[in-house]
Amino acid sequence: MRELLSSFLAGLGQGSVYALLALGFVIIYKSMRVISFAQPALMLAGAVLVSYLVGPFGFILAVILGVAGTALLGLGIERTVIRPMVGKPVFVVAIITLGIDIALRVVINGFIGTDVRQVGDPWGFARVSLFGVTVQERYIAMFVTTAVVITVLFAFFKYTRLGLATRAAAFDQETALAQGISVSSVFALAWAIAGGLAAVAGTFVATGAGIDQQLWIIALKALPAIILGGLDSLGGAVIGGLSIGVVESLVATYQLDYAPWLGDNFSVVSPYVVMLLVLLVKPYGLFGTREVERV
Amino acid sequence: MTAPVRQRRPRQLSGRPGLYTSYAQQLRLLNTRPKLLTVSAIVLLAFVLPWLVADETLSLLGVAMAASIGAIGLNIVTGYAGQVSLGHAFFLAIGAYTASAVSGAPDDDTIGFGVTNVLVWLLAAGLVAAVFGVLVAPLATRLRGLYLAIVTLGLVFLGEHIFAEWQALTGGAGVGRPGPVPVLFGVELNSSGDVLTSDQKLYLLMLASLVVFGLLARNLARSKVGRAFAAIRDRDIAAEVIGVNLTRYKVIAFAVSSFYAGCAGALVYTITGFIEPSSFNLLLSVQYIAMVLIGGVATISGSIMGAFFITLLPALTRQLPTVAPFISEDASSPLNVFQVETVLYGLLIIGFLIFEPRGLYGIWIRIRNYWKAWPFSY
């Protein structure tokens, strides 16, 4: 029981990172109907930026600057590469983001080098006892930070003028334009927010083991999360992310005892299995909107 | 009732080579004389090439030809039928492993059945991959666009895990297994004989396969099936309304595409001679996407051009240090050819999509149209 609980809590922590990344995907998808495959590169960029800034500025300030920097990077990508492609088929734009991801990651890998870089977080692998269950402190930090970030984000979308504009543009671009909403700044904002969220996620992913050149693969696990939640549902992204984290953690704890034939490290690919199963049952995810199309 | 009389039309009007008098005439494979002449010239040149160039170049060209088959396969499902697939690496892997398992030595560490006939293992590789394609297709009939892209992406990760763990088949991560053993009509293709070296024989095998597969794909594209693919790509609901059975044609598209991918995987690893399970990753899928996009979406000649471009790109970037000394050949230095290569994949995809969405094929069309009307601008 204790093992189950501690595995569950670790999963929630890891899952909140997936939730942040998934939110980035969903925000971009809602605004431009495109899945940005550049998210792994943005995550890596955020983590590397923090690892360089943490020396002179300390952890908290480094994270804030890192988030700002990565948001700017996201904005820059949108302005230079994505903007000329507005109105083109979504597949083309998605493949362009894939190209950005590949090119950008090579540059970032140059900054990582062959060593493992540390983000200098205050938690490391320290553990704490919570109601009799031992959990790594960093998982608690992930969960709490994500909760705060998500609350702020949802409040932003619900209560501010810009948030309302974003929702309007996501609902119907042309009508939003006719009402005087600058859809292009909504696009820019979506990419900046996605960049910022990716930076936070990247920092947390890098806590503990540090940053190496393979870290980006973790960002792609947000894809099963958004499929699970539905591509256009913010709440779905959060729930999907948390569930994927919990599933992965539980599989990591129990799979070798109960299903050893699945091989070592099966937990790493378990999110994709969950994704395939969900898609067979619910093609638009748990909370996604069913597409209605006219000929 | 009398059978409808088919009106006979003149095959071609004299002095009007560009005028088509029937649909069949327009759809002919080599519908103009210049096309007929250039294509024959290229094929002829390709067949005498083994006696003209060095063996290393031949093996590189052979890989490019095998990759062309894979690119044609991806173009069938993504270019013609419009179903975005990022899972091509998975199907390549299935083909490669099927072929090497069928042809491998039975007393080796890894599974092998010792059937070394090329025709047998090539067909087996294609068919097993096609079966997996058919298994994936039901997802494609339920999903559209980017959902499908993500699912096929998941397939690559699952495949990577399975291939790393199934050591009896693949040898396991970091160990690998030998590639397929090619024997055709009693001739061992991967050892040098009295008449031809192994590189020359393998090159000819690849060339012959590419000609066959290319022709088949071209014929598929101009048939009823090809038109159904195009209808699904352009507007799937409209296609369904005019009577195209979506499920049926999506299954066909995935089956044919996977068949091509399986054969391509088997052939590529025949030349390289060694299969490492971790090589079937997302980057490989992206390389094939790049071949299709850079070559030209929904064209066979474009797929071949793109595959040659992407396969020969590393050979070109390896030459960079002689021109630009600040780029190093050492993989551990800050700016090296491997990084340049990967960045180029990304930048070329972006550049072609923004500036020439029709790819190399589109550039060729532009050049052709320019000279057609020369010296007038149009």
- Summarize the biggest pleated sheet of chain A: 2 strands, antiparallel
β content of chain A, as a range? under 5%
Our count of helices of chain B gives: 16
Radius of gyration of chain B: 22 Å
Strand order of the largest sheet of chain B: 1-4
Number of helices of chain A: 11
Binned strand content of chain B = under 5%
Give the CA-based shape of chain A.
Answer: globular
Helix-strand string of chain A: HHHHEEHHHHHHH
Number of strands of chain B: 4
Strand segment tally of chain A: 2
Overall average residue pLDDT of chain B: 83
Please state the average pLDDT score of chain A. Answer: 85
User: pLDDT below 50 for ≥5 consecutive residues: which ranges of chain B?
Assistant: none
SS-derived structural category of chain A: mainly alpha
Shape of chain B: globular
Describe this structure in words.
The complex is a heterodimer of chains A (295) and B (378). Chain A is an all-alpha fold and 295 residues long. Helix content of chain A is 71%, strand content 3%. Chain A has one domain (2-220). Chain A has eleven helices and two strands. In chain A, helix 2 (39-57) crosses helix 8 and helix 9 packs parallel to helix 11 (266-281). Chain A is globular. The termini of chain A are far apart. The mean pLDDT of chain A is 85. Chain B has a domain at 49-281. Chain B is built from 16 helices and four strands. In chain B, the strands form two sheets. A two-stranded antiparallel sheet of chain B has the order 1-4. In chain B, strands 2-3 form a two-stranded antiparallel sheet. The termini of chain B are far apart. The model of chain B has no long low-confidence stretch (mean pLDDT 83). The chains are: A mainly alpha (295), B mainly alpha (378). Chains A and B meet through helix 4, helix 9 and helix 11 of A and helix 6, helix 10, helix 12 and helix 15 of B.
